[in-house]
Amino acid sequence: CETCSKEAAKYRCPRCMKYSCSLLCVKKHKLALSCNGVRDKTAFVSVNEFTDLNLLSDYRFLEDVGRTADAAARHCIVHSPATKRLLYCLRNKARGCNIELKTLPVGFTKRRENSTTFNSMENKFYWHLKLVFPHCHAEYTLKGVPDDKTLADILKPYIDPVESDPVVCQRLKIYTASPQSDVRILMKIENRSRNSVRYNELDASRSLLDNLKGKVIIEYPTLFVVLKTLKNDMVVLGQ
């Protein structure tokens, strides 16, 4: 068992492939790793390891996607003039800021989660933002983040040794204990093939709007906060 290291393993998590010996250890590993225990249907499988079972799984996955897309197309909200006007306004304002904002059909999780708005009086975006800390397997969702706020200020409540929340600080100890100069903020580049994933490195001293200019965003930005010495396989564009 990879949780208690005492008993013989009986179960294997379909999501992260961790071995467990009991229901208690299964629950502990889910809590510690923020794992939902659901198999990742889109996980990469090399040609050498591809079997008939993988083929069947892919076929069923495509069927599920087809059903979801069809249900979303029939949804009454997708045909609502108010919804279409709101999305058109968001995309148009983003285009004016040199940001290519793409929205998903109703029914997709990111479309349902997205709370991004544009304040016409202030001429400012208030973004729905997701922060991912891969070294601690932690994710945080922020709502109503003004586009003129710097990335350094956005991260202060999480990784600043003085200003961060004590509970969050404990969970992200590896970040708070590291020099701030080692922290890197990355954003995945969209519209690339799955076997050629690259990231843009963002400037923490600049505003969120400045960092998003010239980039493609699907629904809302997802920022990966990594340490320079532990970036693993996250390759920055140009490297």
From TrEMBL:
A single Gene Ontology CC term: pre-snoRNP complex
GO MF annotation terms: zinc ion binding
Superkingdom as given in the UniProt entry: Eukaryota
Entry keywords, A to Z: Isopeptide bond, Metal-binding, Phosphoprotein, Ribosome biogenesis, Ubl conjugation, Zinc, Zinc-finger
Domain HIT-type: residue ranges: 1-35
Annotated PROSITE patterns: ZF_HIT
Biological process (GO), any one: maturation of LSU-rRNA from tricistronic rRNA transcript (SSU-rRNA, 5.8S rRNA, LSU-rRNA)
Subunit (UniProt): Interacts with FBL, SNU13, NOP58, NUFIP1, RUVBL1, RUVBL2 and TAF9. Interacts (via HIT-type zinc finger) with the RUVBL1/RUVBL2 complex in the presence of ADP.
Family: Belongs to the BCD1 family.
Protein name: Box C/D snoRNA protein 1
Encoding gene per record: Znhit6
